[in-house]
Amino acid sequence: MEEKEITCIVCPTGCSIHVKRLEDGTLSIEGNQCKRGYDYAETEFIEPKRILATTIRIEMAKVPLVPVRTDEPVPKEKLDEILDFLANIKVKAPVNCGDVLVEHVLGLDANIIATRTLGVDTCDKIACEI
Q1: Structural domain tally of the chain?
Q2: Does residue 119 sit in helix, strand or coil?
Q3: Does the pTM of the predicted model rise above 0.85?
Q4: What CA–CA distance (Å, rounded) separates 66 from 81?
Q5: How confident is the model at residue 124 (pLDDT cuts 50, 70, 90)?
Q6: Domain assignment of residue 20, given as a range
Q7: Averaged over 76-91, what is the pLDDT?
Q8: How much is the pLDDT for 128?
């Protein structure tokens, strides 16, 4: 029998929820204080998903990295693969907060979106050093 202790993150209560797959394949979920906790524990047990927040390289901006995140939760087991993919991505400024920088990352329903606006760095390198 597969079982797992899950701490709910839906609200500040942080219920400790015990989930167990019974012999007939159904789930036994105990310890949640609300329906949202039940739903969270069920999803976390069957197919855990996360919003991924990271950075990717950007050219022609004042800073070398732009913060990004997925616009939908992605399967937890895909996080490392997505990070490896994004390590090879480079975008060019300007980038606006909310811009889709990568559509359907790794064929998933999630896009990679910018979480900060970065304009083009128009500073002349020689003038900036003075």
Answers
A1: 2
A2: coil
A3: no
A4: 19
A5: low
A6: 3-46
A7: 98
A8: 47
